Amino acid sequence: MKRRVTFRKGSLLGEVARYYADDYIVWPLPAPGGDKTILEKWRPADEVMSHRVLLLDGRASGKPHKKYFLLGFRGWVEVLSYRLGDPDVDGFHDLIFLVNKAREYVLKAEGGEQVKQE
Fold first, then answer.
1. pLDDT at residue 6 above 80?
2. Which of 4, 9, 46, 52 satisfies CB 3.0 to 4.6 Å to 17 for a cystine?
């Protein structure tokens, strides 16, 4: 799944700057070590500063791996391997929240285990 967030900087004269942040949630991965493959092959995109990739591959990474393009002036990519039910990781709270809510919804729809309400 993909999501794009637009950031606009305005002033009295109107819009001064605009850039984007792209988020991706990927599952299942075809092969282990997908986070390193993504970091090696990812390229910057025009007007996109931040690329965040959340990999649901059943492994806990602990912290995201980062790669900067042109010292960060062309943006960066962050990749996090995440296992459902693990604690939140800084910088990925919103994506982890979406994944956990989707899991709760599926479990309720299937009549599966009871999920704790927050």
1. yes
2. 9
